Amino acid sequence: MIRDQETQTLLEDSLRRFINEVLVPAEEQVAETDQIPAEIIEQMKELGLFGLTLPEEYGGLGLTMEEEVRIGFELGQTSPAFRSYIGTNNGIGGSGIIIDGTPEQKEKYLPRMAAGELIGSFALTEPEAGSDAGSLRTTAVRDGDFYVLNGTKRFITNAPHAGIFTVMARTSTEIKGAGGISAFIVEANTPGLSLGKIDKKMGQKGAHTCDVIFENCRIPASQLIGGVEGVGFKTAMKVLDKGRLHISSIATGAAKRMLRDALNYAKERKQFGQPIANFQLVQGMLADSKAEIYAAECMILDAARRRDAGENVSALASCAKYFSTEMCCRVADRAVQIFGGAGYVSEYGIERFYRDVRLFRLYEGTSQIQQVIIAKDLIRNDSI
């Protein structure tokens, strides 16, 4: 659902200019330094990018799901590090508070998140609980008006920059599986919370992850999201439904960028006395990429509109995430092939994208987890 087409078009146009004039020229610097320049972060704050999806009453833009994925198609067309830095506030780092938080929790945190003054992070994955999120071991034991947290979270996006964490922890040892999990807001300066070293990753330089460690970390009971125990896993799944559509749009945007770069190179690079774009085998790779990008866009927009209409889109979000992220990696592979030897050296940047986009198939649920979700939905509902 697009609330006002003129406003949406203006937002997309201004973002596109910012990406082309500011972010794209800074990509190589970010990759080399593993840092986003402070002046770019300030510009992102001024543009309101930290609060794109946060409710208007808390200073955000309150984008609908369709509006958000259309922005994602644009944001994906530059280094994923930029999207990652603002993405947790708009996605998994803020969604739990928006969806299930109490009015007091929303009032306390969302305005600062919308302004970019506070970075939110989502702490679900653990050393022994990744795809099997229901088996997490971090505990939160009630002690009067407090909870005491113990455990370790792994690969937590934006953890080195975060001011608050949405933490999934087990509040009941008697209830096995997902039913014993609750969600908490934990402030980064809470005694007993510490961070591990920043992970050295295959790609996505400038986007930082690390362990988050809780050792007798004592937080007020008021930090329990929604004020109710045992619904944390449901909160996490609601967050991931939305996040998967967001990542799908980012992956599709990245595929568009790589196809555009490959097309421009194919039209300029000459072999046998003519541009390689004239050769049918190259044309086949370009055509396959265009067709798959178009298919992904259609899937994502359809699922987004259905979510805006109030439908349960868990399976459709998984379909979109599975197809678009796998598609993105196929486009990356074809782009490197079209560039030939030039695609394997850092000067052209396509090798950086090749490494960066590989992560899309892993986080917020691996491709195999998406397949399981889709298949279980088919079997349960007996509808295609």
UniProtKB/TrEMBL annotation:
PROSITE patterns: ACYL_COA_DH_1, ACYL_COA_DH_2. The keyword Flavoprotein applies. InterPro entries: Acyl-CoA_DH_CS, Acyl-CoA_Oxase/DH_mid-dom, Acyl-CoA_Oxase/DH_mid-dom_sf, AcylCo_DH-like_C, AcylCo_DH/oxidase_C, AcylCoA_DH/ox_N, AcylCoA_DH/ox_N_sf, AcylCoA_DH/oxidase_NM_dom_sf. Residues 231-378 form the Acyl-CoA dehydrogenase/oxidase C-terminal domain. Residues 6-117 form the Acyl-CoA dehydrogenase/oxidase N-terminal domain. Coiled coil: none annotated. Its cofactor is FAD. It comes from the Bacteria. PANTHER family: ACYL-COA DEHYDROGENASE. This is Acyl-CoA dehydrogenase family protein.
